[in-house]
Amino acid sequence: MSRTPHVTSAFLFDLDGTLTDTVYHHVLAWKEALDAEGIALSVWRIHRKIGMSGGLFTNMLLRETGFDIDQDLSDRLRKRHAEAYRRLSADVVPLPGAAELLRTLSDMDIPWAIATSGRMETARPALEKLGVDPANAPVITRDEVRYAKPDPDLFLAAASRIGVGIDTAFVVGDSIWDMIAARRARALGIGLLSGGYGREELERSGALRVYDDPADLLKHLDEVGGRR
Q1: Nearest to 204 by CA among 185, 173, 176
Q2: Span 24-91 CATH architecture
Q3: What beta strand segments (E) does 39-177 contain?
Q4: Where in the chain is the domain with CATH 3.40.50.1000?
Q5: What DSSP element (H or E) covers 183?
Q6: Taking each helix axis from N to C terminus, what angle separates 23-36 and 71-88, rounded to the nearest 10 degrees?
Q7: Going along 98-184, which residue ranges are E strands?
Q8: CATH superfamily, with its number, for domain 10-22+93-224
Q9: Residues contacting residue 154 through CB under 8 Å, at least 6 positions apart
């Protein structure tokens, strides 16, 4: 009797809050950028939007603050955020187990890629601390797709980059925006608590499994098809 061929899983990772402990660096950088433009927004409200595309971020700002955010203001905010983040990113560190998780997947010949809503100008410092060179590793940034999360474009592009079907991929992320994008891409979502969202929020948004951080995922990798 012939056996059905084994389908190898692939893993598509968000970056901030998933592999690197950078969510709150971005929150503070956005807070600084907004304050510089005289836009008052509480830190907790900013946190709830980290992980979505910059365009949606500013659209939600418009609704919550009543400011008329035109393209010039949007561009200034993005520039101020990038400048503040570069300054704050000096103490960026990978999350526990992140580098080991990527090494383990590579050693097991399991394909993986990173897909982030950030542009390369802000993603590069975190990638460097993680030990990932975007010249040699599959990294998709906001610069390369038309729409970022919660649209599925980033994860679809990441799956295409490593030559796997999106239906064989797990999307690993820390925010509801990652999980919504995974569902829209028709991939299975794995949530991590390391970005500040709660277990129930991630599960309601589509997470099949939820773990504490990359180290916890690594311990349970076989639960999500992480084997040769």
Answers
A1: 176
A2: Orthogonal Bundle (1.10)
A3: 112-115, 139-140, 169-173
A4: 10-22+93-224
A5: helix 176-185
A6: 130
A7: 112-115, 139-140, 169-173
A8: HAD superfamily/HAD-like (3.40.50.1000)
A9: 115, 116, 117, 140, 142, 145, 148, 181
Give me the tens of pLDDT residue by residue for the chain, a chain 228 residues long.
Answer: 445 444 568 999 999 999 999 999 888 998 999 999 888 888 998 888 887 776 777 777 767 777 777 888 888 888 898 899 889 888 889 999 999 999 999 999 999 999 998 889 889 989 999 999 999 999 999 989 998 889 999 999 999 999 999 999 999 999 999 999 999 999 999 999 999 999 999 999 999 999 999 999 999 999 987 665
CA distance 27 to 211: 23
- Residue whose tokens read 């076989």: 222
What does pTM read for this prediction? 0.90
- Respond yes or no on whether the N-terminal peptide bond of residue 111 is cis (omega within 30° of 0): no
H or E element: which one contains 207? strand 207-211
What three-state secondary structure class fits 134? coil
Q: Where in the chain is the domain with CATH 1.10.150.240?
A: 24-91
For the sheet with 188-192, list strands across it.
139-140, 112-115, 10-13, 169-173, 188-192, 207-211
